[in-house]
Amino acid sequence: MYRAQATGEDTGEIVLYDLIGEGWFGGISARQVRDDVKRLKGRALDVRINSDGGDVFEAAAIYQTLVQSGKSVRTYVDGLAASAASVIAMAGEDIYMAENGWMMIHNAWTLAMGDAAALRKTADDVERVNGSIVQTYVARTGNTAEDVERWMNEETWLSASDAVERGFANAIMEPSEQILAAACQSAQG
Questions:
Q1: N or C: which end of the chain has fewer CB within 10 A?
Q2: Beta pairing partners, 103
Q3: From the centroid of its chain, how far is CA 123?
Q4: What is the pLDDT of residues 60-72, one digit of tens each?
Q5: CB atoms closer than 10 angstroms to residue 39
């Protein structure tokens, strides 16, 4: 599910409850998010995330759209921000995790085809993509590149408390905030 709407006179909300990217990923496109961020008036934007991830390039474009929006962005991990969705979560000035929420970080994946030279080039390209993801996490969390690279190599699952401890989130949402968010989702379809 994807939705973008005004939630107050000065606040908008974007709900990312699907895979990130178009094509075989299905789901949410960076173009769609960009158009809605421009359309939503106000100074604040709440971005709610529950996503298995998807296309890292679409996620990077969504991240840039949010960071460069001129709005105060808060991201909320309502359930899961895995893979590419964790990159989007980093766009929040404040990042909130549901107490039972999870974030997963790992190295970029791709499909490849071709001769040995083409496959070596693809591997080099994937390593460069990993480097850009590492930079995003390091800038947001304050961790060292070495630590982030190790966690990505290990495909690390962060509970809410782990995410706060390692700087991937600022705070854990109170259960009442989670219940309110779920009620709002149900009421608005």
A1: C
A2: 81, 158
A3: 24
A4: 999 999 999 999 9
A5: 11
- 47 exposed, middle or buried (CB, 10 Å; 0-12, 13-18, 19+)? buried
Q: Give the gyration radius of the chain's Cα atoms.
A: 17
Q: By C-alpha distance, which of 2, 4, 6 is closest to 14?
A: 4
What is the distance between the alpha carbons of residues 129 and 149, in angstroms, rounded to a whole number? 12
Annotate 12-60 with DSSP letters as a single string. EEEEE-S-BSSGGG-SB-HHHHHHHHHH--SSEEEEEEEE--B-HHHHH
Amino acid symbol at 26: G
**pTM for this entry:** 0.90
Tell the burial category of 172 from Cβ atoms under 10 Å away from its Cβ (0-12, 13-18, 19+): buried
CA distance 70 to 107: 30
Q: What 8-state DSSP symbol labels residue 140?
A: H
Token couple for 36? 């809605």
How far is residue 70's CA from residue 162's CA, in Å, rounded to a whole number? 30
Secondary structure of residue 179 in the 3-state scheme: helix
